[in-house]
Structure prediction request, 680 residues.
Amino acid sequence: MATCFVVCAGATGAAVGARRESVALRTGCVKGSFGARSARPWDYEGELRAKRAHRSGARILAVATPSSNKQAVPAAYGYTHDRQRKQYDYVIVGGGAAGCVLANRLSEDRNVSVLLVESGGKGDSLRVSIPLGFPYLPGSDIDYKYESEPESALFNRRIFFPRGHMLGGSHAMSVMLYHRGSAADYDGWVTEYGATGWSSEDVLPYFRKSAHQTRKIEHDRSSSGDGKDERQKRAQKKPTASSKFHAKGGPLTVSDLKCVNPLSNAFLEAAEQTGLPLNPDFNDWELDQSGIGTFQVTQRDGMRESPRTAYLQPVQGTRRNLTVMTGCTVERVMLDTDANGSAVEARGVMLLDRDQRKVVVEARREVILAAGSIATPQLLMLSGIGPRKDLEAVGIPVAIDSPGVGCNLQDQPAAMLSIESKQPYVDKRRSDLYYTEATGKSIRTLLRYLFLGSGPLTSPMCEAGGFVRSGASKAGESCDLQLRFIPFVSEPDPYFSLGDFATGGAYLENKSNRPAGYTLQTVLARPKARGRVTLKSADVRDRPIIHANWLDNKQDMKAMVEGLKLCRKIASRAPLTAHAGAELYPGPEIQSDADIETYIRESCHTANAIVGTCRMGADDDEMAPLDAQLKVKGVRGLRVVDSSVMPTLPGGQAGAPTMMIAEKAADLIRAEHQAAIASR
Prediction:
């Protein structure tokens, strides 16, 4: 797949460069600040003496082996101490959404040293920064390109899982939608899973802390008591945000769309005609999540706002106690074990640096895994923490038998209703209405973006949509479906369409020939089915085995069928039929529920919200690898902070909840350390 993303050349290209520099200056970014730097020589003698006293032989680095409970790193491993980056207080593995937040927050204390290790690159190219560069990202060199095993409920198809392989992680290659889920999602974490301290009341301050809401904030706004009436009143005026749920001043910019496609407005009119209410704010928990509207996105000045640009860039060049290593692969966590071979403490990590040298890095306080819902359980299992049977099957000595590691995988299947315009190869000249390869060749579109920061190039593609409850949902449950409207005609699997576009070349020379049209997408917002991740081998270079287990649940399947039928109902209304030609997919011949179900099983794809594979829970819940403080049970100094800790998937995208989790985790980590000092 082509990885070059050239928007323009010559003077226009210079304007893009100037625009990037302008954004960098406003966000406090320092160009070229991501190189590895030596850590500042810190004085921790008092703290280290206290810590070494209870370790008994703390200078010996250990790996779990069946023959020794505290074995030094064997010469066969070929590991050496990195003399410049030998020890840090906190070692964070993974530079995605959670890792960037933690690196920022933990390094606020200039008396601690923080290392952030990322296996991918910097993630700072223009194709990442420009919102409509999204088609160039899946399947590229900044994508892990995971695949599932053949899925029995999907006619043995393999599912493609794009995952970000760069600083900023998967959120840096997402469609930028900002969704928190509903209050009931987090309250359920407490009542159903024993995750004390994670109720909606507990997490709301961290959502507010993380975001900078660009809408006008209304203070002490009183509700009429009727959520539907309140939604309708607010939808009729310029959107505002309630101070109870939103704030200004956080690192992550959350904004309204800079440009709304006329077709997206037509979708909203058509959906309203089917009886769906308007919702001006999907993240206002007093209004409920249900309804339709335009989505808010993580963008700043018309450019993508990722965890990297929001949290990492502003501090990277100014904090000497923060070191970022890219292109480095962590192979395992080092564990001290007791006389029985059971892990008792994490001591650091073993990694391959960008030059493929094997390096040992020690953590004085904690190792924090933030590698995401696929790589984090893989690392735990490679380190000897996981289901005994799975570890023994690939020859890994068991340090902690934790049967829940890798289980509870949740993701959002999605299906497409695609409709051509009336004249699909003539209408594409209307590049501000139909997004095709012609859009990036429009001089007007390019100038709007370069000088005004608006226009189609700011589009997340999924501009409008909403949340609904299907007939499959049970009483009291939150919305089980998300709807998205896309002014781009897609094959049933959009990754085929995006690949066709991306391989056509850069915008100005793109040779793909996409028809004009639009797509309605139905997404299973809160799936019931659960999958799992396990190891293929004891080698970190071997991709883990992923069983998504999609649609192996009758309620999930019923909801998806109803969702596609609802998309058709919306598409049949006049605001959209005025632009409609032929229905391409699933096609007019697919009408019965059975045929729709078959179409969905043959073509469903991921909406990219993988969570849950190392969930937190009650202390006595053996299927919860983590406690409510996100610490790995049975191991001191080892914590998991990323999307894998979620017991269930909050409806919508997982990026905002993941950053909230990291904000709260940073406070938990600091408070625990301060309490330990006070007790000495």
